[in-house]
Structures are given as structure tokens and as C-alpha cells.
Design a protein that fits this description.
With 655 residues, the chain is an alpha/beta fold. Helices cover 39% and strands 18% of the residues.
Length: 655
């Protein structure tokens, strides 16, 4: 059995013609090849190309240390040249595949079959193009060794073509938010999850231009998110291809989120230079641990539709409006909502009646109020623009001053804006940076936070909340408990699959590091008898709920849930009904968070009944607070659990 990944990349070789930058270089599958070479991946190339590129293919495959290389198809009557009108993807890049429609391709499937037998790949990455995809997939699926097949459908023509091409379930379907296929399913994440694409792949990877990425496990509908790492790009061509192979190369050594973050960072390095050697050196010098710890920028595609942006400036009919039009189109391309007040609300000429003037003014104020960000275009010292900048500054909203002609010299103006930029690329870069949600869909995705431990009560509550349609953020607190590893491993095993990717671990272990409680110092059960007093930790519940409430309010989550239930053994002063009532009052008076304890009036027996109804895997939950390996059977938690199970069993027997 092979342990190391061996990735075979199948697709066309192009000549990329960057019209705007007067640069020509080898493209197509060579973008993926450069990334795999830089990260020292074991890879092969199965190329479809016109004959004039054959020598270049041989030369650069060797230079990039490809372990295997074969030409599996020839393209005739088309040069396979891509004209790129806008290399940096400020907006639409305007790709043009020269003479695409007259191309004729002859595949040599025997060569591909020989390459698979010789190279023995574990993963296949396919970039569909002008060739017959179905015949290649049929060959791949007939192989004795099961191959993980990943297909990037960036340029696939339609959903029906995709469904017709794939007869068996593959590993990953890869899309970007600028792809035709994403638009066809409705241009949002929910439609993508519920589309027929979910039936033909184990995972869907959505690359959200400049705002990060989302990976969907189609069997569980778990969502994994990763940020983008923005820079002022030299180009954006081939970035998605680099991202694909970096993620696929790393996802067996790292978690999904970690592999996505590494792929994102490496791809951003690819975008800042055309110099392969410089790119490779930058990759080699960067610590993976450091990359994984970086926050980056997270601005999901579907959230951007809620981001209104006010474009200020002398947007008058007799002026050159090109900058206004370009910025508006670029913002729409990235799914933001731009506003040009003169276009939307009308032009004030001074000849209008008073009520019309007031109406225009009021509508412009409404646009300013609803917009989160302003882009002010400084073509001249237009007084209206300067007043609007002052209004936004007073409201504390970010302002990007686009000053292409370098006329912003006034100190008060310079100090009133968030940043001053000179190029369109910098404008879009700052939009993402300033509207960064920082934690993905948190503020829009979660409506409740749940304290979880891997025990019976909190696990049951997790299933309970999901059954009621709650969007739950699960939190596990490491407070130095000696049974933390056992507790956490149980939690990961029993937590509902939909929540696993969202689990957060909060470390506060220093707080109790000098405690002599048997929650911190493990007792010797051969010698010690354990009582509730031995497990006392001062203000533990208060601490947990305060931490949870702080996280919730910071992330605009209204409700904090805990599975606390009545217990005859509880000794803590912060376990009483009186305490929880007072705490709820304090939080509601001084913040927006509500503490919810739905099981407070229940007994453990009632929780077991509820767990059975919800098909909770109760048998593998872990509630013991005394032994870090197996339940001790004598601590208060074990006693409560055993009594409840015993009573439940008796009732079941009677029935």
C-alpha cells in the first residue's frame, strides 16, 4: 500500500499571452506543475497540446522535476493561446481561447493507461477542456487500483454536461465563484450544497475570489473554511490551479482547514511574481506552522451581497466616468453592492424645485447610511465629495481614497480617510482588507453557542439544538483537567458531524494550575475515596459562562447554551438556581447575550430519554471527572449516570 501521494495532472498546455503586461509564458497544466515542484510533490503530467509546444513541454517538465510526463493527445487547427486582457483579476479577466471552436483533438488513451501503470498515481487532477472528458474518466474508473479523482470545472459549460461526464462518484469537484457552473446552480453556497453536484462527489471545493475558500463534505454537509492571504498581485493567472494541487497534496498530512490555509498562502506567493525561482524560494523559507497560525482575510461570497459600498466623486455626465464604471464593474464581479448616487438618485443641477433638491439630498444620505465602506475617487477637489468623506469619517466608517493623479495634498483630507491608493488593484485589495469578516461566516452563520465536554448531557443538547434548526458554535474549554485528552477524544467522536468542523478549543489551563482539586490532580482510586468536595473548583461555572458569553457577544451570537442539570452532588456556589437567575439578569442588563439552560429542571434520567429519542450515541459519551482512562464508577458524575441508566433500563424492561 502506497503512503506517499503521487499526483497525475491531466489537461491541456496553453501559451498564456498577458496582453496588458506584454508577457508570454507556458500555462495550462504548468501552473499546477510549478506549485507541485515548489512544494516538492511527487507528480506526473499527462498533456494534451499542439505539436509546436512539444519541445517546451519536454524541457519544462524536466526542469520542474516531474516524475512522469507523457503527451496523451494532440491539438490540431488551434494554437492553444489564451489572450488575457486583465492579468490581476481586478474584475473579469477577459480570457479568450484563440480559435477554440475549430480545434480538433485526438486522444491516445493507451499512452494514458501506460502512464498510470508506470507512475502508479494515488490522485488524479483533471482540468477539462476541448478534449473528450468522458473517455478519460471511463479509463480511470476501470483501473484496478482505486484512484482519487479531482476535477476543476472552472470552464465547464453546463451542469448537465458535468453530470453526463461522471458515471461514478469522484473525490472532489472544484469550482470558483467566477465559474459558469457556480452561476448555474444559483451563485450561493446553499444552492451548491443542495444541488445535484453533491451526488457525484465526496467533496466540493469552492474558491471564493480573494475572499478565501469553502470545502463541503457532501455526505455530512460539514463546512470547512479558510481565509485568503492578500497581497498586491503581479498577476492572478493559474492561482486556482496552484491552489488545487497544493490542497490535494497536503490534505492527508494536515486537517482540511490547515491544508486549505497552506494552499491559500502558497497560491498568494505564486501571484506576487512571474519568477519561478523567487516563488520557490519564498515557499521554502516559510514555516507551515506560522502559516497555519495566520488569520488572513475571510469574506465569503454569499456575505458580500450584504456589503454596500458608496462610490463618491464627480460622477457627472460631462466628466470622464471610466474610473467610476471600472470600480462599479469590479465590485459587482466580486459580488459586492456598489452605489453611484448620481446614477441612482439623479443629478443636482441647481435648477430643480426645492422639494426635488431635498429628495435627492435625502436619498444620498440614505445610501451613505446603508453603506459600510466608501470609495472616494479624487479627480478634482469636488466639494460634494469632500463633504461626503467628512460625513463617513464622522460615522467611523472606512474610506478608501482613490487618488490616481496624486492630488491629495491637504492634511485634513489625508487624515480623514482610512487609506490612499493609486491603482485599481490597490482599491480592490483594500476593499477586501477593510470588509474582512475575520472569522468567516461567524456573525451570520451561528445563532447559538454551546459549551460541550463530550459528556452525555452536552452531547444530547447538541443533537437537540440541531433538531430544532439551530446553527451551533460548539466550544470546549481546557481548564487543566487531568482527563482533558479523554474528554476531548470522546467529544470528537460523539459530536454531531455537522458541528465537528466548527469545534473551538479554548485554553484557560493556567487559571487552575495550582489547584489541588481532583479535577486537576488525578486521584489514586486504589487509595482515595472521592466526594463532591474533592472535585470542587471555585467559580468554574461562572468562568465558563463568562467566557462563552464574551465569545458570543464578540461574534454577535445571542444565546449561550449549557447542559447543566440538577444534581444532588453539586457543591459549587455557582450551581444553584439562584446563581443562574442572577447571572442571566446581569448579562441581559449589560450585554446582548442570553444564558439558556434548557435541562436545568431535568434529572439525568430525563436527559437519557431525550437522547434516545434523538439517536444520540450515549454509550460512547464520557462523563467521569476522576479517572482519565475509564469511568471510575464512584465519582458524583459516574453515580448520577449509573443511577439514571439503571432506572431507564428498569422502565424499558417493564415496557
Amino acid at each position: 500500500m502506497q503512503n506517499k501521494k503521487r499526483i497525475l495532472v491531466i489537461g491541456e498546455v496553453y501559451t498564456d499571452n498577458h496582453i496588458d503586461q506584454n508577457i508570454v509564458r507556458l500555462g495550462g497544466i504548468f501552473h499546477s506543475a510549478r506549485m507541485l515542484s515548489a512544494i516538492k510533490g511527487d507528480f506526473g503530467l499527462a498533456a494534451i497540446l499542439p505539436s509546436y509546444l512539444l519541445k517546451d513541454f519536454e524541457h519544462f517538465s524536466d526542469k520542474l522535476n516531474a516524475s512522469s510526463k507523457k503527451v496523451i493527445g494532440e491539438i490540431k487547427y488551434s494554437p492553444n493561446i489564451i489572450n488575457i486582457n486583465e492579468s490581476k483579476e481586478i474584475g473579469s479577466q477577459g480570457y479568450q481561447d484563440i480559435l477554440r471552436d475549430q480545434a480538433e483533438i485526438k486522444l491516445n488513451l493507451e499512452k494514458l493507461n501506460d502512464q498510470i501503470l508506470e507512475f502508479k498515481p494515488t490522485d488524479i487532477v483533471i482540468y477539462p477542456g476541448k478534449y473528450d472528458l468522458q473517455s478519460i474518466l471511463k479509463l480511470l474508473m476501470q483501473q484496478k487500483e482505486k484512484l482519487k479523482i479531482h476535477i476543476d470545472f472552472q470552464y465547464s459549460s453546463s451542469l448537465s454536461n458535468l453530470l453526463n461526464s461522471i458515471e461514478q462518484k469522484i473525490e472532489t469537484i472544484i469550482l470558483s465563484t467566477s465559474s459558469n457552473l457556480f452561476e448555474e446552480v444559483g451563485s450561493n453556497l446553499l444552492n451548491l450544497i443542495t444541488s445535484r453536484i453533491s451526488d457525484i462527489a465526496n467533496f466540493i471545493l469552492l474558491k471564493e475570489n480573494r475572499g478565501g475558500s469553502t470545502l463541503i463534505d457532501t455526505s455530512t454537509q460539514e463546512i470547512f473554511e479558510a481565509p485568503a492571504y492578500l497581497a498586491i498581485n503581479e498577476h492572478s493567472v493559474g492561482i486556482g490551479d496552484c491552489y488545487n494541487v497544493a490542497y490535494i497534496s497536503l490534505n492527508d498530512k494536515y486537517s482540511h482547514v490547515e491544508a486549505l490555509k497552506l494552499a491559500s498562502y502558497y497560491s498568494s506567493e505564486y501571484a506576487v511574481t512571474y519568477d519561478y525561482e523567487l516563488f520557490k524560494r519564498n515557499i521554502e523559507l516559510t514555516s507551515k506552522t506560522e502559516i497555519i497560525s495566520l488569520k488572513g482575510v475571510r469574506l465569503p461570497w454569499d456575505i458580500r451581497k450584504e456589503k454596500h459600498i458608496y462610490i463618491a466623486g464627480p460622477d457627472f455626465p460631462n466628466n470622464d466616468r471610466r474610473y467610476f464604471e471600472e470600480i462599479e464593474l469590479a465590485l459587482k464581479y466580486h459580488n459586492f453592492v456598489p452605489h453611484r448616487p448620481i446614477i441612482e438618485n439623479g443629478l443636482y443641477t441647481g435648477q430643480e424645485e426645492y422639494h426635488v433638491q431635498q429628495q435627492i439630498y435625502n436619498k444620498d444620505l440614505e445610501l451613505l447610511e446603508k453603506s459600510e465602506l466608501m470609495i472616494a475617487i479624487l479627480l478634482e477637489n469636488d466639494p460634494g465629495t469632500l463633504v461626503e468623506i467628512g460625513w463617513m469619517n464622522k460615522k467611523g466608517k472606512p474610506i478608501i481614497l482613490f487618488d490616481p493623479f496624486n492630488i491629495a495634498h491637504n492634511l485634513f483630507l489625508k487624515k480623514s480617510v482610512t487609506c490612499i491608493v493609486k491603482t485599481m488593484d490597490e482599491v480592490i485589495y483594500q476593499v477586501f482588507k477593510l470588509l474582512n469578516t475575520d472569522s468567516g461566516r461567524t456573525s451570520n452563520y451561528y445563532d447559538s453557542l454551546l459549551l460541550m465536554s463530550g459528556g452525555l448531557d452536552s452531547t444530547t443538547l447538541a443533537y437537540d439544538l440541531i433538531s430544532k434548526g439551530k446553527k451551533v458554535l460548539p466550544i470546549f474549554i481546557d481548564y487543566g483537567q487531568h482527563f482533558k485528552d479523554r474528554e476531548l477524544s470522546s467529544l470528537i467522536e460523539v459530536i454531531p458531524k455537522k458541528l465537528k468542523a466548527h469545534l473551538r478549543i479554548i485554553n484557560i489551563s493556567d487559571i487552575y494550575k495550582f489547584s489541588t482539586s481532583n479535577m486537576i490532580l488525578e486521584a489514586n482510586l486504589w487509595i482515595n475515596e472521592i466526594s463532591a468536595d474533592d472535585l470542587y473548583l471555585p467559580y468554574r461555572n461562572l468562568l465558563f459562562l463568562a467566557i462563552a458569553s464574551s465569545i458570543a457577544q464578540s461574534e454577535k451570537i445571542d444565546e449561550v447554551y449549557s447542559a447543566f442539570i440538577n444534581s444532588n452532588h453539586a457543591k459549587e456556589i455557582d450551581c444553584s438556581t439562584e446563581f443562574f437567575d442572577k447571572l442571566e439578569g446581569v448579562l441581559s442588563e449589560y450585554g446582548s447575550v442570553k444564558i439558556v439552560l434548557p435541562y436545568r429542571e431535568l434529572e439525568k434520567y430525563d436527559v437519557i430519554l431525550k437522547g434516545k429519542e434523538l439517536n444520540v450515541p450515549m454509550a460512547i459519551t464520557y462523563s467521569c471527572q476522576t479517572n482519565s482512562k475509564v469511568p471510575c464508577g464512584v465519582c458524583p458524575n459516574c453515580i448520577d449516570r449509573e443511577e439514571a441508566i439503571s432506572n431507564f433500563s428498569k422502565v424499558q424492561v417493564k415496557h
